[in-house]
Amino acid sequence: MIQCIGLGGRYVFSASETESDIYGFLFFDLGYPEILAQRIDDAGAIICLVAAVVIAINAAINTRLTRIFDTVAAISVSSWVITMALAHMVRGGLYAELALGEYAVRIAAPIALVLLNRESVTGNEKHRHAPAMQVMIYAVAATFLVHGYKAVQCYGPFTDLILLTDANTLRLNFEQSLVENALVAIGAIDVLLAGLLLITRLPAIAFYMAFWGALTAISRMTAFGLSAWPETIVRSANAGVPLALAFCLVFTQKEVLKLSMPTQKVLSTFLAVAALGIGAALATSASADAPLQGTQPAHYRVIWTDDPATTATISWSTAERGSDHRVNFHERADPSNQGIAMAASGRFTGGEVELYYHHARLTDLKPSTAYEVQMISDGEESPLLYFETAPSDDRPFSLLHGGDSRSDQKARRGVNAMIAKLVADSHENDVPSDDIIALAHGGDYIVSGNKMNLWSMWLSDHELTIGTDGRMLPIIPARGNHDHGKPFNEVFAFPDDDKNYYGISLGSEVRFVTLNSEISTAGTQAKWLDKELESARGSHRWLLAQYHRPVYPAVKNPGAGLQSWVPLFEKHNVDLVCEADGHNIKRTLPIRNNKHDKTGVVYIGEGGLGVPQRTPKTDRWFLQSPGMADKGDHVFILTFEADTLTGKCLMVKGDVRDQFVLNRRD
Predict the structure, then answer these.
(1) I want to staple 94 with a disulfide (CB 3.0 to 4.6 A). Which of 304, 385, 484, 607 is the partner?
(2) What residues contact residue 429 under an 8 Å CB cut-off, 6+ apart?
């Protein structure tokens, strides 16, 4: 019953959470109208709330009729949770393939109730609890196995639960390394106990699991505040199921724990549904529409993650491994001074598509200088292309920002073509501040970060940002929640173990910091951010940050950065924060101490580079005037001058949806 309230309250009563993966699957992946997808999602939440009432009535009255309604309610809730898990698997995300195991206790709680009702009708007291116990045993083991595996991998949100609980409550100043070591130990214990439960059926194991399940559920509120109550009670089954199992094990003989034929049918049906879900997840793979051939270079791109005035990474892909990959380059104004940079190469990880990456790092370049480049793989040549390094002095310029280019290829291509034209037009006039020097991408490039066929499509579409004269626009990449797995680092030339947060200077007066909202936001990353902002604030006029999950979202729940990063943004007077993930347009009013303050920080976003758009929740306080919210494919143009930072939200059809001006801080 408590779980039902959590499942319903999470999406109906919560001030922030408004959708499940079912909504996302229907709207983004199947193309349902947004209002229909939202109503189906809301219907599921309401069904769960009604089920809670029905279950409570049956517990109080317990007649044959109420047991029938109780069974229908329980089956409805379990079916809804299974559907949520399958939708999460299909949509992708870090560890999405483990969703059925992670949700196993939430699925099992209603199923166990159904089995207990059935056995109570038969009147066989000796074997009454056996089928339900079997379901609970396997469900608890599955959930603890998945959680243990994620803990051993030092899953970022788990790390944040501990670090933020410490910061808000314990105040023991845990180091992130200590927390991660503890997580590895906790995860190993969870995996071990899952196995022992299956083998020994010891009540003590189930009692421990109940205690740990309750502790981890409560940690949502100790880390994120009382407003996270739905996140706590939706996990009530994490404690309730092993607790019920523990008492059943105490009072039941082990020899009765044999599956009856009806129970076998229930479990077989569940496994069949799980198999269908996995098949559906695999079936979502699409083939790249522009296959590469041999060692012919393709997927041209320029990447800025270091000093962009003197350094750039030129990257491309080939279908075959090859043996000799290099870039020929020279100043566009001086073709006689030819340079050669050898590429670091390897095979992309992810799926059955065989593709190879090549990254040539150019160093000791001149600031504000156009360089012509040609990528060569085993004698096969790319077209002659060029890019321009960033300035190193104090001069006006413009920067593009956007995010979420993952689900609507037609829209993505349209935005990319618009970007190419914007860049070309910006350099054709005589206004230096119009010159667009790079694109900062806030993450979610594709739907499932482990699928190279999808990356290949994105990389092919990214070539549409290249101008008709061969100008390539450098990209400043951030990782999104759909960009899990190794391919992200391989696409953007990060080292294998890189954490994907860094800072670069654009000119002498703009510091642009990229954060990673997909790992622990607290601990090491927050400490780095504090030092980075402190140093940058004293040496740069303009201070900006970008990352994926919004802390003041127009639709979704706030990311963990609300606790980890916002105090640092306000401490160091960050001028502008660029977010993504929400699939809408937003600009907050200036915020300090969680309220409107003209000296505060402005947040913009939330992703429109090629993804279906959500309708923003315009009643949220931080979107009121002078803030705004809307939806549509878009990109932000940020223009930096001596005393002002001007922002403009440009729609794909060319109309300006929003404009704002930030004045230089005193």
Answers:
(1) 484
(2) none
